[in-house]
Amino acid sequence: MNVYNVLDADGNLLGVLPRSFRDVGLAAELRSFSGVRAAAIPAGAEFTVPAYVVGGAQLEVYLDGAACMQGGQYSEVGETDAPSDKIIWNIEISTDRDILVRSK
Questions:
Q1: What phi and psi, each to the nearest 5 degrees, are found at residue 24?
Q2: I need a labelling partner for 75 at 20 to 30 A (CA). Which of 6, 22, 45, 60 fits?
Q3: CA–CA distances in Å: residue 100 to residues 44, 49, 77
Q4: Degrees to nearest 5, angle at CA 79 with 74 and 85
């Protein structure tokens, strides 16, 4: 695991911190709350999300708390096994919908 060493003023090791959320099994999240976006997101639009590996089953995408299906409401962008930070919405997302995207 990649870690940062936490040292006191004398250089003694106090502990370690993970370099990324993935190192401790936590998810990075993006939230876009209803009423915040100025306009609807049109179908076919790219949307920036936390970094993930295409085809790696790392994304969880929710609209108003309901899970979305890869290939249904959204599609991953990029080559399989390559890093990406984009999805394409396959449906229009109106301004009154909450979006939550987790990368684990």
A1: -115, 10
A2: 22
A3: 18, 9, 17
A4: 55
In a domain, 55, yes or no: yes
Per the domain annotation, does 94 fall within a domain? yes
C-alpha gyration radius of the chain:
17
Q: List pLDDT tens digits, range 59-85.
A: 999 999 999 999 999 999 999 999 999
| Mean pLDDT score of the chain | 85
Q: Which pLDDT value is given to residue 28?
A: 83
Q: Which residue has the higher pLDDT, 33 or 80?
A: 80
- How far is residue 46's CA from residue 15's CA, in Å, rounded to a whole number? 40
Specify the number of domains making up the chain.
1
Within a domain: 11: no
Size of the chain in residues: 104
Task: Tell the residue number behind the tokens 């993006």, with chain if given.
Answer: 30
Q: Is residue 51 assigned to a domain?
A: yes
Domain that holds residue 57: 27-103
Give dist(CA 93, CA 86) in Å, integer. 16
